[in-house]
Amino acid sequence: MRVQFVTLGALITTAKGAQLEGTIFGVWLTGQPTAPDLLPFLRGTQAVAQWAAVQPGPNTFNFSALDVAAQAALALMPAGRDPRLTVQINGNEHPPWMFDMLPACNNDTSTWAHENKDPRGVLQFWHPFFVQQYEGLLEALAVHLTTVSYRSTIAGIRMSWDAAGTESTGVPPDHRDPAQWIRPDGGLPAAAPYNGTTGLDYQRAVFRAHVAAFVTGRSPSNRTFLFVRNSLPIELRGEPLPLPDGGVGPATKLFDAGVVGWFHTSSEIEPRSGDSLHYTTFLQYCKDYPTTICYAEPWASAWGDHGGTRDPRWCSPPQWEYWRILSDLHVGVTYVALYGTDMQVAMNGFYPTASGSRVGPQYQCEFNQSFTFAATYAGSPQLSPSEAPGAWIAFRSSVSPLNGYNVNVSDYFQLLALDPVMSVDFEGLDARRNGTAAPIISNQTIAGLFTIGPYWQRYGAWARVLRGTTGIAVLRLNAAFAQSLVASQEKPSLRLVHLAMGVQKNTMTCRVTVKVGGKSLPLLLIPTGPPAWNEKVWSLPSDVITGLIKTLTIQLESSCDVVLHMVEISRSLPSTTLCAMPLNPQDEYSA
After folding, report:
1. Fewer Cβ close by (within 10 Å): the C or N end of the chain?
2. Sheet bearing 553-558, strands edge to edge
3. What's the predicted TM-score (pTM) here?
4. What b-and-e string marks burial along 371-386, b requiring 16 or more CB atoms within 10 Å of the CB?
């Protein structure tokens, strides 16, 4: 099954002068041709060509395949949508003539180079001739992109290693024996055997070639913004490179200058154990204004599907999709990408499988609201806080590693953070430890899913519980954002997402108090039966805003234990809304 993505955001002019269109990007959007019409937040797309399609011979390049892909993708956008596109040359398929010149390994390469689709195996990609040809391709592509009719739509080019597939540069020890790399008759002599530094040397050459071709080797008007993989080894980030101003300095200066950004294709609901570099890179460069432009695609769909395999999940698809988006927003991602199969759920309530699976209007609404939240806040870190659309915090536990993931980060937030010193008895909840098992329904749900509240609602992977009478949650609001609310042309609002009383099995009325700017906003919770997530929205009058500017705090208290998901302050109405409860919840999960 072909995979599609979309990415979300807004028009961004950073403090460093970089201007990019943050939109929903449809990667492989041609597989979902009706998506731009059905999803108004979809504004971007992607042009992809295989290396084999653009280099018919040594030092000979023809980018017609890329141009056709770009024009086809852009043609799907409705008039007036002002589309943006990312560009990339993939290495799943290498030029066939290279196999007549370079050694290749075809000894069960599918086990370690699964992205490689060349029937003759994996080329000796660290060979000097291979590297030379790739450098020549990048230079030719950089020149070509200065002449194309769609240049004004290009948000950036994605750096690809294009070695053993598009993303991999490794060769496992049991495939490093030179005898496994067969030299073709009349071909070039083999390169030195792959060793512990070969992969790093290759990455260095490819990174430098991208920077030279698209940035430092071009005049400012002919540069193409470059997205660098955030798996770039630490060793290479500090090495000196030519800089746009003509000097020489560490590679990190390129990001500080705003001429290159970061991206990855492995976003998940939380970092996997031992795989935190992607997330810490985003946090370092993308989280706080002024920042670097960053792009992220998910590792797999909300169901765990990617490349013909299905990864395990521990919470429901709406929860996985929503919290994965919150994770991307938390680390400051500008462009939040979505799988096209997940996008189809938002379009029509179906998750594409071989037979087609109806997941229903509840899932459709939950996915739509998740995407709407992403479309509202993606790119916010690249704006001054005084221009941000809102501030929010999604409450989350912080516990030891669990199920192969690093659960070592606490709440996800933008411009509104929990004060850990002033807050007491406000405990994190994790559905894997504190939730309940989702019901197992034949052909609809799967074993091993846990949830806080109903599994068909998007919120319940994590939460916090505010203990009655003793619990206090103190939130700190960004000062520049608070000041900017005074000049807002619309009335700001505060949204609180909470779990209805039934989850505590309490038959008494409960009073939650939200203290903002010297005023108390009351919320009366009355038992209503089965537990369900709900929300309360308050308009914030001018006197409350004036008081909030002085204190910069929001304080939550409750007369009973209450489970909370989010506090959001918006410049006007909240970014999203609560989905209606399903009449028959068991119909809402069937993939």
Report:
1. N
2. 416-418, 473-477, 553-558, 510-516, 519-525
3. 0.92
4. bbbbbbbbbbbbbebe
